[in-house]
Design a protein that fits this description.
single chain; four-stranded antiparallel β-sheet; globular; binds 2-oxoglutaric acid; binds fe (ii) ion; metal ion binding; iron; dioxygenase activity; dioxygenase
C-alpha cells in the first residue's frame, strides 16, 4: 500500500510536453550544468540559502509547470519557485538523503525519458515507522537495505508528490544500477500501466524536474559595495 504522504500521478504530462521539456533541458547554456560524480544537474530559481534565496526568474518553459503544480494547492496557496533538473544515465543515482529545511516540506517531481525507482529509508536512529511502539533501537542496522521502508516506481511523464512525514522523517534515494526489479517492495504497482511483479525494467537516461517552494526569499538582491 502506498503511504498517504506519497501521491503518485501517472501521465501528469503528455508525450509531446515530455519531449518539449527534454529539448529545453538540452538547449540550456552549457554553464547551466553542474557536474557531480554520479549525475549532472541544473538549478533554476536561485540558490536556496538559510538567510533567504535571491530569487531568479524561472524560464517560461519551466514556469508553466510551476503554475500547473501550484494549482494543485500543495504549498498553502503559494506557487513553487525552485526547480532542480537532474539527469541520470543508466547506472547513475542519488545517495539516500533528505531535502532539508530550506524547502517547504512537500516535494514534487516530474520524470522524463525513463522510469526509475525511488527508495525510502528510515534514519539510522529511528525505529521503523510501522512499529513506533518499539523504543529506538540502539543497534539499528547501519545498512540501507535493512532500513528500507517502501519504493515508488516512477514512470516517465508521472508526477510524484512526497510530503509531511515522508519528507521529514525518511531518507530517499535512487540506486546506482542499470535496471530495476519489480517486486512487492514497490508500493504503487497498481497505479502503473505496464509493470508486473518480477519484471526487470531497463533504465534509459532519465531527467527529473524536482519542483519545490523555497519559502524564505530575499526581496531584493544584496549589493556588497565598498563602505
Ligand atoms: O531525481 C529524483 O527523482 C530525485 C531527486 C532528489 O531527490 C533531489 O534532487 O533532491
Ligand atoms: Fe531529494
Amino acid at each position: 500500500m502506498i503511504p498517504d504522504t506519497i501521491i503518485y500521478i501517472p501521465n501528469f504530462i503528455s508525450q509531446e510536453e515530455e519531449q518539449k521539456l527534454i529539448d529545453h533541458v538540452y538547449s540550456a547554456p552549457k554553464p547551466k550544468w553542474t557536474h557531480l560524480s554520479n549525475r549532472r544537474l541544473q538549478n533554476w530559481g536561485g540558490l536556496p540559502h538559510p538567510k533567504g534565496m535571491v530569487a531568479e526568474d524561472i524560464p517560461q518553459w519551466l514556469d508553466l509547470y510551476c503554475d500547473k503544480i501550484g494549482k494543485l494547492d500543495l504549498f498553502e496557496g503559494k506557487k513553487p519557485n525552485h526547480v532542480l533538473v537532474n539527469e541520470y544515465s543508466p547506472g547513475q543515482g542519488i545517495m539516500p538523503h533528505e531535502d532539508g529545511p530550506l524547502f517547504y516540506p512537500t516535494v514534487t517531481t516530474i520524470s522524463l525519458g525513463s522510469s526509475t525507482v525511488l527508495d525510502f529509508y528510515t534514519h539510522i536512529n529511528q525505529g521503523k515507522a510501522e512499529d513506533k511502539s518499539e523504543p529506538c533501537s540502539e543497534n539499528m542496522s547501519k545498512k540501507f537495505e535493512d532500513r528500507h521502508v517502501c519504493s515508488v516506481y516512477l514512470e516517465p511523464r508521472s508526477l510524484v508528490i512526497v510530503k509531511d512525514d515522508m519528507y521529514t522523517k525518511y531518507l530517499h534515494g535512487i540506486k546506482e544500477q542499470t535496471e530495476d526489479m519489480v517486486d512487492d517492495r514497490i508500493c504503487n504497482i497498481k497505479q502503473c500501466s505496464d509493470i508486473n511483479i518480477d519484471n526487470i525494467k531497463t533504465r534509459q537516461t532519465r531527467i527529473s524536474l524536482t519542483i519545490r517552494l523555497v519559502p524564505k526569499v530575499l526581496k531584493t538582491k544584496l549589493f556588497f559595495g565598498k563602505k
